[in-house]
Design goal:
Structural class: mainly beta
Helix content: under 10%
Order of helices and strands: EEEEEEEEEEEEEEEEE
Largest sheet: 6 strands, mixed
Shape: globular
Number of strands: 17
Strand content: 25-35%
Radius of gyration: 15 Å
Strand order of the largest sheet: 3-6-11-14-16-17
């Protein structure tokens, strides 16, 4: 499904995660941890490392771990930047660029991502992958 792992030894996926085609998991230096029943949409990118724009010679990297809680939905082409935690039940809209932590059950969207709503209902479900379009 063309999912890429940059150092998969630092990527820890919880139970019943759904990872769609074209995703990128950057575990080069820092870890990525997901909870259970997380759905990650097509071409989503999780980056744990980047360049420090204040570095005089552009050689210094900055980064941090990414933590994703249970029952999180990350939609199509969302980008999660280094050091971000996404709380349980949160939703990241398509194309959002998440630059800071997301509170539980919050819906965020835009660039940079901002709160656009609250998730209603319970997140009592267990995901099961059913590739009906294959």
């Amino acid at each position: 499904m063309n999912v890429r792992f940059l150092n998969g030894r630092k990527v820890f996926l919880g139970e019943r995660n759904i990872i769609n085609f074209g995703c990128l998991f950057d575990g080069r230096q820092f870890t990525i941890r997901t909870g259970k029943d997380v759905s990650i949409g097509p071409e989503a990118t999780l980056l744990t490392l980047g360049h420090d724009p204040h570095s005089d010679d552009f050689s210094r990297g900055i980064g941090g771990d990414i933590t994703i809680g249970d029952h999180v939905w990350i939609a199509y082409r969302a980008i999660i930047l280094p050091g971000v935690s996404i709380g349980e039940g949160a939703v990241v809209a398509a194309g959002a660029v998440v630059t800071r932590d997301v509170k539980p059950f919050t819906i965020v969207g835009g660039s940079p991502a901002r709160e656009i709503g609250q998730r209603r209902g319970t997140t009592d479900y267990k995901l099961s992958y059913d590739p009906f379009l294959l």
